[in-house]
Amino acid sequence: MIRVGASLLLSLIVWLYHSGQSxxxxxxxxxxxxxxxxxxVGDTACTSCxxxxxxxxxxxSHSLTSRPVNKDSVLASFTEGRNILTIVDSTNAAxxxxxxxKMEEKEDGYxxxxxxGFDSQLLTRTARMDLVTGSGVRGATYLYWEGDxxxxxxxxxxxxxxxxxxxxxxxxxxxxxSRPINPGCLECHASYIQxxxxxxxxxxxxxxxxxxxxxxxxCHGAGAEHLARQRDGTAGTAGQAILxxxxxxxxxxxxxxxxxxxxxxxxxxxxxxxxxxxxxxxxYFKPLPVSTAEHPDVHGNxxxxxxxxxxxxxxxxxxxxTCHDVHAVERPAAAYSERCLNCHKWQSCGVSKRLGxxxxxxxxDCHMPVEQTNVIVSETGDxxxxxSMRNHWIKVYPSLRSKSAAKH
Length: 408
Known about the structure:
Layout: H1 6-17, H2 51-57, E1 66-68, E2 84-88, E3 98-106, E4 109-118, E5 121-128, E6 131-133, E7 139-146, E8 149-152, E9 155-158, E10 163-166, E11 179-180, H3 183-186, E12 190-195, E13 205-212, H4 216-220, H5 224-231, H6 250-261, H7 302-306, H8 310-314, H9 337-340, H10 352-355, H11 364-367, E14 370-380, E15 383-390, H12 398-407
Antiparallel strand pairs: 1-6, 2-3, 3-4, 4-5, 6-7, 7-8, 7-9, 8-11, 9-10, 12-13, 14-15
């Protein structure tokens, strides 16, 4: 059921209160002069010595998780006929005002416009799409600047089906351009931005400080001293001036990933962007509450689920990087089966007698199934869109084993 009427009226009040046009400035990625990060040198400084890793890393989801909006990053189609998201068709709404969003490419950028009302009396609200978050594997959500404030736009792009949807969390049938982006949101989608307040919920920033994407120094630490030692001939000690997560203890390696891959149900005890790789995450966040949920939460509790796995508990050296190479684009899930077979004999699988050696082609879909999450949900018109994420609790799922055996 489409909820309009009172909810639409309320959204229009919000709209009129918060109706300023977005600023047109797009912040460049990777500026080395950003406030609070003067000892950072930017990814291009890493390329001369680490070309192989750098060349592949720029194509990863981590690197692409936020970018200025341009023809290469916008992802979606703006062609006529594919740039409209209709929420309420006024011709079929029994006297209710219509509501649709129009996405447009103009000479100076890309825009979202909300249009509501009746044919004889329409209200419009337009904002520029300044930043995109999300690499596009599942989709992309767009942000816009208004002065020194950053807001989420109401329409996102969903890769599955190549379609526009209401941004997850928005109330269907409303127009809302006032959803603020706080520093904690950006901490996992950008390498840095300088908040203008110590309030963790504040939405005022030094726009020139923004460094989009997850850059090399986000995991390896500031590179200025490392680079200086390379240049002045003290390369033998250069390694002491940079962080190498591969040399961290297992718990600290996992903490580095858990900063963003342990869900959002946590409480920060330090400002956003203050985490230092190699330090205990508990120095920056209160411990997560004990939970028995098996399903991913809004940003995927991959670390929490992995830590419940018998594989993890019985393998002291196992970490996220046992399977994932953060410098390379993710492979198809089934390809990671080779990691399983380093420890497990395929003959010990419960369905091996029935399926034979063929099971070695895909351990993952049975023992780490893709499941829908009930948290990343978009209600768009008369459709419900739910994200699917891979469960990182590695174990035997009896229902899946039965289905696999029945197929064969």
